[in-house]
Design goal:
Helix content: 25-40%
Distance between the termini: 16 Å
CATH topology: TIM Barrel
Largest sheet: 8 strands, parallel
Number of strands: 12
Number of helices: 19
Number of domains: 1
Strand content: 5-15%
Strand order of the largest sheet: 9-6-3-2-1-12-11-10
Shape: globular
Low-confidence stretches: none
CATH superfamily: Glycosidases
């Protein structure tokens, strides 16, 4: 995607409004694209769209390739005749304030099962579009379908606890299971077909409106995933399949103890021997869905934080060398030029900056990090070049209003930060969310991105994620588009004044 001066909005599809218990890829997604277009925005940034895992996190998915079936729009299945109706209570006047993942999972699974029976009865499994989908995604889809069918049959327990023949992928055992549970596997493929088909329609609509989609590629994958189960040789595991060490980051802005993510670490030497084939397929699959990739934890490709498996916190880890330029040369040789934003937050060393700059990837700037640490703070807007993307905050930050309220609640302790903020703004904060939005759009950064919560001036209750906290995340949801639509003239005028329309 051509990187010209523009702006956009961060909103994950689960947070879209609507009458159901979770945002979906239906009419609300298309309405959101219309709102973006009407306000002169050219970018829509989303989080990973893989099936959410532990704590409903999209960064702890059971697959690095599969789409989230909770996003499948059920009314669309009625329109296409795969469902006769949807059992549902009357829609509320506004969306529920939070996503109900468990209710959505139950409802969507039952509706998709009914749609699957209808699709199969019509001969859809033999249709050209379905068979082409299966062929296009053959690299990961069969293993994922088998993984899900086994997991469902065994009550959802992790693959480490499966009977040895299934756990260790004995060919005869897997073959017998596949024969006995062929329908279950086909249903998983069908759900993925629905997701990718519906998202294709959304992406086509975005392109028609001149809107590029920024997707997220997490660097690590969950241990309890089809990827680790089917590619154990690529991960640092002991003979029983347990991680030898796990991923995370040392103490930082978000956590005094660091963050122990718990993902298994890669065997980069074996991945290199295979010319990073798994990564090539992963990039290629995501690029079917998005125009630009936000490459999560870019630092980890230079050095990653290795934490002993038994450690209670991330404090006891140490840095280990990643694959560096060798990895990216291989990826770019096989896939060609890529549009990538390097997530370069946290403790960034000169070798990380050198790799980012050598590759020509823009980094990220977060305005909430800019104040209180002196004039050399790299997040101050007057230090930006046009090779960066600026955010008021990200999904990991508090909302801008919530952030400022916490600072203001103890003005003595935060005096230096508050004074610096007022000096940079040139006045005491009036509407702190719009104050930072203006700093972002007037900066030299090539792209400016705002979480929709900041455009709406929402407080901490609208925060998407608390890093280091395992529950209560990823649940925030818009109630309606009405408040956003009232901000269209203001946002469009501001972007017009700063050359970002």
């Amino acid at each position: 995607m051509n990187m010209s001066r523009s702006s956009g909005v961060l909103l994950h599809p689960t947070s879209l409004p609507g009458s159901g218990t979770c945002g979906s890829l239906g009419k609300e997604a298309l309405h959101f694209l219309n709102v973006l277009h009407d306000s002169g925005q050219r970018l829509w940034q989303i989080l990973p769209m893989n099936p959410p895992g532990f704590g409903f996190s999209p960064y702890q998915s059971i697959s690095a390739f599969a789409g989230n079936p909770l996003l499948i729009d059920l009314p669309e299945l009625v329109l296409t005749g795969l469902l006769s109706d949807i059992e549902d209570s009357p829609p509320p006047a506004e969306s529920p304030a939070q996503v109900d993942y468990e209710a959505t999972s139950r409802k969507n699974r039952m509706a998709c099962l009914n749609a699957f029976r209808s699709f199969r009865h019509r001969g859809g499994l033999k249709s050209e579009s379905y068979r082409r989908f299966i062929e296009d995604h053959h690299y990961w889809l069969d293993d994922f379908a088998l993984f899900c069918a086994i997991r469902n049959e065994l009550g959802g327990i992790g693959w480490q606890e499966w009977p040895s023949g299934l756990r260790d992928r004995d060919p005869d055992t897997l073959g017998r299971f596949a024969v006995d549970h062929g329908d279950s596997m086909e249903f998983v493929r069908f759900q993925q077909y629905l997701f990718f088909t519906q998202w294709d329609a959304v992406k086509l609509a975005a392109s028609a409106r001149g809107i590029g989609i920024i997707g997220d590629l997490p660097i690590f994958v969950s241990h309890d995933s089809a990827d680790v189960w089917s590619h154990r040789e690529m991960f640092r595991l002991d003979p029983s399949g347990k991680p030898l060490a796990v991923s995370g980051v040392p103490p930082d802005y978000f956590s005094d103890d660091g963050q122990k993510w718990g993902n298994p670490l890669y065997r980069w030497d074996r991945m290199a021997d295979a010319d990073y084939s798994w990564w090539v397929h992963r990039f290629r699959t995501l690029l079917k869905l998005v125009d630009v990739i936000r490459l999560d934890h870019f630092r980890g490709f230079v050095q990653f934080w290795e934490i002993p498996r038994e450690s209670d916190t991330a404090r006891n880890g140490e840095w280990r060398d990643g694959p560096g330029m060798h990895f990216f040369k291989s990826i770019l040789r096989q896939l060609g030029e890529l549009s990538i934003i390097a997530e370069d937050l946290g403790v960034i060393t000169p070798d990380v900056e050198s790799l980012r700059d050598a590759l020509g990837f823009p980094g990220m700037k977060i305005l909430q990090f800019a104040f209180g640490s002196g004039p050399d703070n790299p997040y101050l807007p007057d230090r930006y070049t046009d090779r960066c993307v600026v955010y008021t905050g990200t999904h990991d930050n508090d909302t801008t209003v919530g952030w400022h309220r916490k600072l203001s609640a103890d003005p003595q302790a935060n005096r230096e930060t508050l004074e610096h903020l007022a000096n940079v703004l040139g006045h005491s904060p009036q509407e702190i969310n719009w104050d930072l939005i203006q700093l972002a759009v007037r900066s030299e950064a090539v792209w400016s991105i705002f979480p929709v919560q900041d455009l709406l001036g929402m407080g901490s209750s609208a925060r998407m994620n608390h890093p280091g906290r395992s529950t209560g995340n990823w649940m925030w949801r818009m109630k309606s588009f009405r408040e956003f639509e009232t901000e269209i003239p203001r946002l469009k005028r501001l972007c017009g004044e700063t050359g970002r329309l």
